[in-house]
Amino acid sequence: MEMSQYLEIFIEESKENLQACNEQLLALEKHPNDLSIVNEIFRAAHTLKGMAATMGYDDLANLTHKMENVLDGIRNGVLAVTPGILDVVFQAVDDLEAMVFSIADGGDGKRDVSDVVRLLQQIESGDAPGTAAEQEVAATATALPSRLTYEAYEQTVIEEAIEQGFKCFEISVSLREDCLLKAARVYMVFELLEKDGEVIKSDPPVDQLEEERFDRDFTVSILTMESAESMAGKVESVSEIDRVSISPIETGTFRSSEDTFTESSPEKIQHEIVEESTPRLKEENAENVKKAAPSSKTIRVNIDRLDILMNLFEELVIDRGRLEEISKQFDNPELNETVERMTRISGDLQSIILNMRMVPVETVFNRFPRMVRQLAKDLDKQIELEIEGAETELDRTVIDEIGDPLVHLIRNAIDHGIETPEVRTKHGKEPFGTVKLKAYHSGNHVFIELEDDGAGINKEKVLQKAIDKGIVSSDQALTLSDRQIYELILSSGFSTAEKLSDISGRGVGLDVVRSTIESLGGSITIDSTVGEGSRFSIQLPLTLSIIAVMLVDVKSEKYAIPLSSIIETAIIKKEDVLHAHNQKVIDFRGKVVPLLFLEEVFEVPSEGDEADQYSIVLVRKGEKTAALVVDSFIGQQEVVLKSLGHYLNDIFAISGATILGDGQVALIIDCNALIH
Fold first, then answer.
1. Can 69 be counted among the known catalytic residues?
2. Which is the catalytic residue, given 97, 226, 236, 412?
3. 256-293 pLDDT, tens digit each
């Protein structure tokens, strides 16, 4: 077996164990006397150490071992949990994460961790008590009759090796009940043992072990120069191992296959059968109960496979649209019925595939408690992070992109929003500030809100800074609403920080937030009250690949407008069009809305005839609205969003294209780009 085939599993499981360490360390900080939390951290660290050692990442395994020693001291009552100790353990986890990410990026996982190792050794007590595993090894490391039967030539090999100073051990290993890759764990055990000795025999035989034709237990006989404690410790370092026991075998204590038959009289055999029948029945009953228990219903699937499945289904959606067009032309009842049934089935299939790609936002939210703790410490502030709706699901593509924008928003809230304890107390607030992160579904969108109870946004200061930087003119500033003023902080290069820091103040970050969210087809709005706090609300589509659109005609071309951007459609008379600031506008429901003629925006060839009335589609971006003038409405349809490729990635106000049922290509309009 090649180790490379387990690399992906190692990386995924390592990330999960490190995330568990981070979460439990934060819990331990709140409940320092809860030893069950320490045991959870120790278990995750022990599993990580075993996997790292097996895969040959010694630096990773050694650092985890040092961290384990400190955790062992805590759970045995030798050390007390203090903020100083937790800081060092957090630092060790950070280094471990960096190593794992290095391995994931194709690196060797090496890192200079001498500082954190020195700190861990300083914390660690001089003589740590022996672990339970060592005590078990010491108890069982006496010569016992062998459990395996040996052929004559195997006995000769063992006897000669013992005469030359080697030791013979029988190591019995029991895997955990929930172990999924039994053959892989067996391979890892054999790999470790063969580094320090020679495996003589195994029960069951190797071929049965490789084919997983065994329950949970297996025994290995090995010749080595190592001690029993050392061998047991190495085997225990492999993850998903429940128990290890080791027995030394000396000359004369092992039994041969002949002994099994010659020494057993018929009466003895009968007696053994009678004695063993009851335990065996119990074992069989237990086995039946085990079989009746529900098995695991989840499997790991590479995201690339889901992407391929999604791409194939998108082609199916295009062909479905083509079939619907053909059935309308022929008007055959049987064809219509078949196409309708296919449409229903493909609709169900679409829901299943989209749900397969859905991932809880918890995967992004999980990294924030650790980050908030560190930022609060760096800024000498007291901050509590509250998370709601972490189970809310989003498409994997959106999840991958939304992490960095949320990091910028949280850093901004902690640095600019939340005040220091002294300032908060002076204004009659609690000394600790609160940052709330909330996610929830609404229609075909997911909303993520970040709210803080800090100082709020100083409207006058923001407006003056924007005028000074030339983002808006003095005349424009007079017409802006409060929300529009707040959204000026999302402009490129904008910052109200009095001094630069590692956290914020350079005028980068929030503009990236807006551009990333808009590239995902979403929007961001800001509300704030001075002295009470601010709320950033992000609206995101559930999925990016298949979207509902309104198809429209513009002269001889077809365009698609996402339904998520549309307020309503209407027909207006030509005389209702007004002029303001060299711009055509309409008075729609008491609000002045600018008109955008798509044939002018996209330079569509025109026949020159003027219509008496205009068909308009009202679209919005946050609080701003615009009316898009089209020739006619075709109708609503679900379409597949396709990229225009690298050569056409800078086309103004076009986010992609789709293929319609009749084979025509319709460009999908980016309403966010049209509305400034």
1. no
2. 412
3. 544 443 444 444 434 443 344 444 434 444 444 334 33
Determine the straight-line distance between the first and last CA of the chain, rounded to whole angstroms.
Answer: 59
Q: Is 579 annotated in the active site?
A: no
Tokens 């200061």 appear where?
461
Q: How many CB atoms lie within 10 A of CB 278?
A: 9
Euclidean distance between CA atoms 600 and 101, whole angstroms: 50
Tokens linked to 557: 């071309």
State the pLDDT confidence band at 139, using cuts at 50, 70 and 90. very low
Name 194's Cβ contacts closer than 8 Å, sequence gap at least 6.
none
pTM higher than 0.70: no
Query: Do the Cβ atoms of 116 and 91 come closer than 8 Å?
Result: yes
Interatomic CA distance for residues 193 and 218, integer angstroms: 14
Burial class (CB in 10 A: 0-12, 13-18, 19+), 475: exposed
Tens-place pLDDT, residues 418-451:
999 999 999 899 999 999 999 998 777 889 999 9
Catalytic residue, candidates 13, 40, 46, 170: 46
458 is catalytic: no
Say if CB 324 and CB 343 are below 8 A apart. Answer: yes
pLDDT confidence band for 128 (50 / 70 / 90): very low
Q: Which residues of 597-613 are buried (b: 16+ CB within 10 A; e: fewer)?
A: bbeeebeeeeeeeeeee
Please check whether residue 64 is in contact with residue 49, taking contact to mean a CB–CB distance below 8 angstroms: yes
